[in-house]
Amino acid sequence: MNIAVLGTGYVGLVTAAGLSEFGHTVVGADKVAAKIEAIRQGRVPIYEPGLDALLESNVRKGTLSFSPDLAASVRAADVIFVCVGTPQGDDGSADMSQIEEVSRLIAENLNGYKVVVEKSTVPVKTSVRIKRTISLYNKTGAEFDVASNPEFLREGAAVSDFLEPDRIIVGVESDRARDLLVRIYERFKDRVLVTNIATAELIKHASNSFLSMKISYINLMANLCEQTEADVEQVAKGMGFDPRIGPRFLRAGIGFGGSCFPKDIRALIKIGDDLGVDMSLLKETERINQGRIRVFLDKLKTALWILKDKRIGVLGLAFKPETDDVRAAPSIRIIQALLDEGAAVRLHDPKAAENMKEFFPEDGVRTVYCDSPYKAAEGANAVLVCTEWKEYADLDLGRLRGLMANPILVDGRNVFDPAAVAARGFEYFSIGRR
Ligand code: UGA
What we know:
Elements: E1 2-6, H1 10-21, E2 25-29, H2 33-40, H3 51-61, E3 64-67, H4 70-76, E4 79-82, H5 97-108, E5 114-118, H6 126-137, E6 144-148, H7 158-163, E7 168-171, H8 175-184, E8 192-195, H9 197-226, H10 232-240, H11 261-275, H12 280-304, E9 311-315, H13 330-340, E10 344-348, H14 353-356, E11 367-369, H15 373-377, E12 382-385, H16 390-393, H17 397-403, E13 408-411, H18 418-423, E14 427-429
Parallel strand pairs: 1-2, 1-4, 2-3, 4-5, 5-6, 7-8, 9-10, 9-12, 10-11, 12-13, 13-14
Helix pairs in contact: 1-3, 5-6, 9-11, 9-12, 11-12
The structure holds uridine-5'-diphosphate-glucuronic acid (UGA).
The site of uridine-5'-diphosphate-glucuronic acid (UGA) has 20 residues, from α9.
């Protein structure tokens, strides 16, 4: 099958590489020519384990190529996956201008029947808009179908999520489109759920918001644990044994970030509000998440009282481990609050430091980037953990403590064992446990 993937961001790159790995001929297209040039030269713009190798092997096989010419890519394709961005607009809703733009471009290059597949996360009923836009600008009268095939990959595990998905959702309104999409995912026949388009669109938002809700729920329990003798790690473990609940996404911490959960929950709230559906449950989920930063900083203030002129080491900038992505990372709000209160920060992350410099440029005085966690701890009045990178769990705590001005460790991801840290002479604050 000839496939065009429009947009070479996270989802687009992984989709293009993955579909070519499944044996299809794929062109990844992006209007930013410099991006295409970089990818062609093997410079992948994101850090994602396994992605470089997957791209390289498929480009070498000749089944995957990249092009800045979206129009030609559309003309050559039977199926077009739309993977352009849907960033958050000012009112919380998704900004759909890039989807509209490529819909027009597809219409103008419709030289035969094609299926246009929404892969980006979009509000329910977006397909109706895409269909109307393509019809409006379709000069040739060629037939087309719109379909929805939401992507569930997680950053940091994107390649394996794509190559070994737990489900494939295919939203269609014609047998012809269904047959094409089912053929694309032939090897996962047993995992394909075919629905109508609105259902497929909603499954994506419903899944992300449900997982966000699970995280806010355990964070609420963490607040309760902190006022009692209970331990949130044990509470989560005990709950997780129940197969109806499951153990995953019950890690208490400083809240969910990233380019998906915070944006998607707001988008779903907006959709519900617009449709007159009471979205209080999700509004509360978001409110709890917003409150995590205050809860975390209060721990630091309990330890240090006043933050002005204090030196704080921050370990972990990415919104989660195994990624260099800092979009909507909790660390951003934490660092901002520290700087606002007059503290100086020493920042470390194994992968995300460069990206964070766009938010907090290095000034060598109040904002310093360090190439090791130990450097970040030098002379620090406290060290904060904002991302649970494995290398932090393996730190030599004795060495860390020796470098710090005050042995205060505030762990927003429960990376350390409280007893082990206390044994090293730290005053230790973590989430939902004493
Ligand atoms: C999420 C979903 O997990 C994917 O299925 C989905 O495809 C993707 O969004 C998307 O819509 O594109 P991702 O944003 O990569 O994936 O990251 P997650 O692993 O889901 O983590 C999201 C946030 O929740 C992170 O900040 C993480 O630290 C936080 N989290 C996660 C917790 O605080 N506790 C947990 O137990 C789990």
